[in-house]
Design goal:
Layout lengths: L1 H29 L5 H21 L6 H19 L5 H26 L7 H4 L3 H21 L7 H4 L3 H27 L5 H80 L3 H20 L14 H16 L3 E5 L11 H19 L6 E8 L3 E9 L22 H14 L3 E8 L2 E9 L3
Parallel strand pairs: 1-2
Antiparallel strand pairs: 2-3, 3-5, 4-5
Helix pairs in contact: 1-2, 1-4, 1-6, 3-4, 3-8, 4-6, 4-8, 4-9, 8-9, 9-10, 9-11, 11-12, 12-13
Keywords: Kinase, Membrane, Transferase, Transmembrane, Transmembrane helix
GO molecular function: identical protein binding; kinase activity
Protein name: Sensory transduction protein kinase
Length: 451
């Protein structure tokens, strides 16, 4: 009698641990904070419900009935703790831990354990082994989410389209249908042979395992694509703001110049009319002093950009140089000759140039004396664009910028790198190289002029 009671307490303890781990996975997936104390109390209440159900309905206390109760239990928890979240997301957060754990556990039981000589008929009678497989399944799901960078909490932000909402509703419905199918087989199991029940369960598990994995990959890809587009839009918006601010400064300079010209003209007129050479001399000296002050001014001289006769490219270079200047970089620009064409599609070249300038700015920000220089050289048989920037001490000489960990911290770095790779594959006369030497990052774009 005592041994049975201790065994009963052991099962209760294992149930509490299993539900606590599942609740922890639910909190991790949904980003709904649950304290350890709350997780314990919720797990304890669920186990107490199972004990009461077992006491009054022992003939109906089977594994799938318990799973259905957990299904409703997690739905209520999601609705209570996520009041500000839309119902379709709450249902996904509630169903995902249970369905994923069930699928992985049953997949292991039906398809992996038989490889070790333990078919389902043997495993189902080993309660401790089932608990071990369940805990392993939870750990495996947790690690897969971390390794493959699934961020389900951001889905609420990027699932705005009608198509995405329908796909999420379909995913929720498929998870609910999975539980109904499993429960239906359990209800019909007395009228079916053990082999038929096991076969039906195996088919359902395999089908839903593939379906669920496909839906998750598709949904996550949609979210990442939308998040990248949002990052790019924010980046373009920031560049537009910098460009507008610089235009405002240019307009202010023009107004100051007009006022200066008006003042100088008035003084010169007075000096000439009064035949007073001292007034003319003072005006002239004032202009010289103003020019000396302007020479000391560290403002960016953008007049040479007029030699870039492709307007879109001139604008992207201007925006990046303004960004660098706003980040306190010393900027130099060299364009000896006018350049009318770059022999690439304008969109491709602007993406390429923007990526390399972002790299240069990012690397230079880590140095004590950040600087950036860009030169457009029109040589006999090719165009060469040289982008140089300072790098922090410790960077390996000859190290490629594409292997530098510092750049990979940018949210849109991988997206931009894929674009660059696509562009390089599109033009066989285009080459890009990068090198770090003596604390200077040099990036080269070489475009051979087509015959």
């Amino acid at each position: 009698m005592l041994e049975d009671f201790l065994q009963f307490l052991g099962f209760i303890f294992l149930d509490i641990i299993e539900i606590m781990l599942t609740l922890k996975l639910f909190s991790f997936v949904s980003a709904i904070p649950l304290r350890l104390k709350n997780i314990f109390y919720l797990s304890l209440s669920m186990v107490l419900f199972q004990v009461v159900f077992w006491a009054f309905f022992p003939d109906h206390f089977i594994l799938d009935v318990v799973m259905l109760a957990q299904f409703l239990f997690f739905a209520l928890i999601a609705l209570y703790y996520g009041k500000s979240i839309k119902a379709k997301f709450l249902m996904f957060y509630a169903f995902f831990p249970l369905v994923s754990i069930s699928l992985v556990k049953r997949f292991i039981v039906f398809f992996v354990m038989p490889l070790f000589g333990m078919p389902y008929s043997v495993v189902k009678h080993n309660t401790l082994l089932i608990y071990s497989i369940t805990c392993f399944s939870i750990f495996l799901i947790y690690r897969c989410i971390q390794v493959f960078h699934f961020d389900f909490s951001t889905w609420r932000q990027y699932f705005q389209s009608h198509r995405a909402s329908k796909l999420l509703v379909f995913t929720n419905s498929s998870m609910a249908l999975y539980y109904l199918c499993v429960q239906g087989i359990d209800v019909m199991s007395p009228s079916l042979s053990g082999l038929a029940t096991t076969t039906a369960r195996s088919i359902i598990v395999l089908f839903y395992f593939i379906l669920f994995l496909t839906l998750l990959i598709h949904l996550e890809r949609y979210v990442k694509q939308n998040s990248i587009e949002a990052i790019v839009q924010q980046k373009e918006y920031r560049e537009l703001i910098n460009y507008s601010q610089h235009l405002g400064l240019l307009y202010q300079d023009i107004q100051e110049l007009r006022q200066l010209l008006t003042t100088v003209s008035s003084r010169l007129k007075i000096g000439i009319e009064q035949n007073d050479i001292s007034i003319v001399r003072l005006t002239y000296e004032g202009i010289l002093n103003a020019e000396k002050n302007n020479a000391k001014d560290d403002r960016l001289d953008l007049t040479c950009l007029d030699k870039l006769q492709v307007e879109a490219i001139r604008h992207i270079v201007l925006a990046k140089l303004i960004e660098a200047k706003n980040k306190k970089l010393k900027v130099e620009v060299s364009i000896p000759n006018c350049i009318a064409t770059f022999f690439l599609e304008v969109v491709d070249f602007t993406k390429l140039l923007s990526f390399l300038l972002d790299n240069a700015i990012e690397m230079s920000l880590e140095t004590k004396q950040p600087c950036l220089s860009i030169a457009f050289l029109d040589q006999n048989h090719k165009l060469v664009i040289v982008i140089q920037s300072s790098t922090k001490q410790g960077q390996n000489d000859s190290q490629s910028v594409f292997a530098t960990p510092a750049l990979k911290k940018r949210d849109d770095w991988q997206f931009d790198l894929r674009n660059v790779t696509t562009i390089l594959n599109r033009y066989d006369y285009l080459t890009i190289s990068s090198q770090i030497h003596d604390g200077i990052l040099t990036q080269l774009i070489e475009i051979a002029k087509p015959d």
